[in-house]
DNA-binding transcriptional regulator, LysR family
Amino acid sequence: MNFRKLSIFYETALNLNMTKVAKKLYISQPSISQAISEIEQELNVKLFDRINKRLYLTHEGEIYLNYARRILNLQQEAIEAIESINKGEKGKIVIGASTTIGAYILPNFIRKFSEEYRGIEISIIIENTKHIEGLLLENKIDFAFVEGQVYSNEIVKETIWKDDLIFIASSDNKINKIKEPDLKIIEDYKIIMREEGSGTRDIVEVYLNSNNINYNIAMQIGHSEAIASIVEAGIGLGCISYKCVEEKIKNGTLKKVNFKNFNLRRDLYLVKHKDKLLNPNMLTFIDEIKKVRI
């Protein structure tokens, strides 16, 4: 077994099309077939079914694909680790962040970090928690900060901050006249919610369901700012991080709905792949951001 064969298998398993793989890797289709055949002989299993000139991964192929991805990721990380030693303080960090953290917590810190460590380039990808999890598994990002649960046993997490979720209403919403409304009143309102896969949405829905609230999701929006704007316009209620609407609440364009006995505090996590080797630049970034208080 060698990395060349492993790469050929990996690309073939992803594309299930030898023509595409041949063009991508600049090799012939017979070379692809030979490499896969040699791996199958070494493993004494069939990795692909070939039916009506189409490729399908076998169960054994799916298992092998998972390990092949991790091996190739580790190989790339080893190369990058050696390069980072030669570069000293120069390097690049690719960070993932779920929407709230990426928009409201990281920007100021990254600006200050970049001023102090000018040789380190910082890139950030902002997506919902579900997409961030996928990027970690594919080694597209080095580590991430998320507000929702991750489910792969390949990812390790560490609580780094706490965050309060609140319900918001427009300044002229009739709900503001009720001193401490019961949470059940939510059933009479349209709810503006984050999209599926969002950590915020997962936490809010678990809370509402556990309290037997039959809520009505009128809109699903991918950005907290858009939710705030829609609610501000008088359309329903929203539930988002207090960090996202702190200024709007202070200036009175939005109101916090103080439901009776409602307190929804969540953990915000630092997450990484368990096989990820963090270089000194990444460790420095993590050490510094752990000092941030929100």
The CA atoms of residues 183 and 259 lie 6 Å apart. The chain has a mean pLDDT of 92. Residues 59-87 form the longest helix (29 residues).
